[in-house]
Amino acid sequence: MSTQFQTNSSVISEKSPGSSIFSPSKSSGATLPNFSHPGSITVAEFIVKILVYLGVNSAFGVSGGGIGPLWANLSQSPLQVVHFRHETGAAFAAIESYFASDRPTVVFTTTGPGITNALTGLLAARGEGAKVILLSASTSVASRGRWACQETSPYTMPQEGIFTSSSLFHFATVLESGEQLPEIARRLSLGLTKPGGFVAHISIPTAVQTSPALVSLPPLNFSRTIATVSQKAIDRCTEWLTQDSFAIWLGFGARHAALPIRQLAERTGAAVMCSPRAKGIFPETHPQFIGVTGFAGHSSVLEYMEQHTPQRILVLGTRLGEPTSFWNPAMIPPRGFIHVDLDPEVPGVAYPSVETHAIQSEIGDFVTTLLQNLAKDLVKGASTPFPRPQLAVAPSSTDSVRPAVLMEAIQQQIVRDSDALIMADAGNSFAWATHLLQFERSNRYRISTGIGAMGHAATGVVGAALGSNRKAVAIVGDGSMLMNCEISTAVKLRVPTVWLVLNDASYNMCAQGAAMQGFSGVDTEIPQADFVQIARGMGANGICVRRESELAEAIEQAMASPLPFVVDIRIDPNQKAPIGGRINSLKAQGAKI
């Protein structure tokens, strides 16, 4: 059916008046600093006071000589300053602290490698839609071009894209003079109050950090017009959704609209599916939930599309990118998509040849208004029950732990019996957790599907625990844990974190994926690591699990521990992870023999 459509993206987001007033002091609890006496404070002090006023309450990074003055001012401020072991981990933690607290966060780095080490994490922040500000140091003007220590200048580093606004940073600049401060404050204020993510970079030469701020700052109050869907557009959507059968496809961008979305689904009887990042927005045990799409998704979704074939799909808060859809033509409904997103550039991109009716709106506002337009007694249930995810446990011929049995234990002891935030790292950990764990609300599970960097959860779990003020659990592979973890940081701060390490002495997603693609002779082995000894060597606690019968007690110890805790789980490497959709997508792109 996918070949019958021509490109037809009709925008029906006629805007009716709507606005929201930004008042930073209400979100941060701070009052506007007194800048009535220009020169009374330094540039570094000015920047820190603005951050506090704008609602930032935490900063993650690694210090160094170039950022010394700014770092000292951060440390003496009301902000919680967390000194990490690596800048990439600090950036991952800042992302997760933002999502756990809904407060913008700061990453701080010194010159040279401090900046470049943080870039992977900042790319992830952009892809995830977080609000993160990078504060870095750069070489002072008088020292540029003279082989300064860790020189950071146009002589040694590319400026375009790192120190300028680009596809990486929504706003970036080098602060060469205090006269730039009012404009920087204005840009940060606008960025942090706009819907969606915002990633900024302010690089401040060392000498400028201690220079007097010879400027005053007016109040930072802004009125922003929000895209509000018109009654005409709502009427058209109501007509489409009442005349034709439809399904709802949820993404992470719909996480703040869980209640009205459930009301819409139950009133209309629509099937609901979600992207991997959107697990829990709609309860996964609900009879109308048909499964997760895309990476580590459920075959029940494709069964539904074949057996029930909705005429339209209402897309809420997902870009329908490869991790969500694999661009599978089987997911195309006969009459196309109704795609709601705040970003007008999103609808129609994933499936450019499919009829797409684009609506620019905040998801909650759209669904709430749509509900008001629908008849209260409207129920269009399926004549037969919808397909549901089947979560089976495969047999094992070894004494090691089956991943599916581990996920059962996590479901019972962590998902069901605690309020802990759960993260899964890139690799088979992501696949098993996404496929097998089930959530009833949206603030329990976090994964990264944009950059998908290894080590994101292994380090981000510290930021998640700090931002949520509750225990956070990272499900990680041994490769991720060896690449990038912050056990030492968690120990120093006594952060209630747990790492569940799937230890199979291998980059097992790579091993299994290569075999499925037909490649042989690739090296994916890792020398067996003892993560309990590693954890204890850093001051944490840990336990090794070699048999399934040991799982319950080990997880109980980990969840009860007041110290950071590592559970080293010797996983059966022969259990095939649910990554077939990803491998088929790679094959379709040419990655095969």
Described by the principal axes of the CA atoms, the overall outline is: globular
Structural class: alpha/beta
Oligomer: single chain
Largest sheet: spatial strand order: 1-15-14-13-10-11-12
Radius of gyration from the alpha-carbon trace, in angstroms: 25 Å
> What proportion of the residues is helical, as a percent range?
25-40%
* CATH architectural arrangement of the largest domain: 3-Layer(aba) Sandwich
Main sheet record? 7 strands, parallel
CATH class of the largest domain, anyone? Alpha Beta
Structure description:
It is built from 21 helices and 21 strands. It folds into 3 domains: 2-17 and 227-373, TPP-binding domain (Rossmann fold); 22-223, 3-Layer(aba) Sandwich (Rossmann fold); 403-588, Rossmann fold (3-Layer(aba) Sandwich), CATH 3.40.50. The model is unreliable at 1-23 (pLDDT under 50). The chain is of the alpha/beta class and 593 residues long. The protein starts with 7 loop residues before the first strand and ends in a 5-residue tail after the last helix. The protein is globular. 51% of the residues are buried. The strands form 4 sheets. The chain has a 7-stranded parallel beta sheet. Strands 4-3-5-6-8-7 form a 6-stranded parallel beta sheet, with helices on both faces. Strands 17-16-18-19-21-20 form a 6-stranded parallel beta sheet, with helices on both faces. Helix 5 links the parallel strand 5 (105-109) and strand 6.
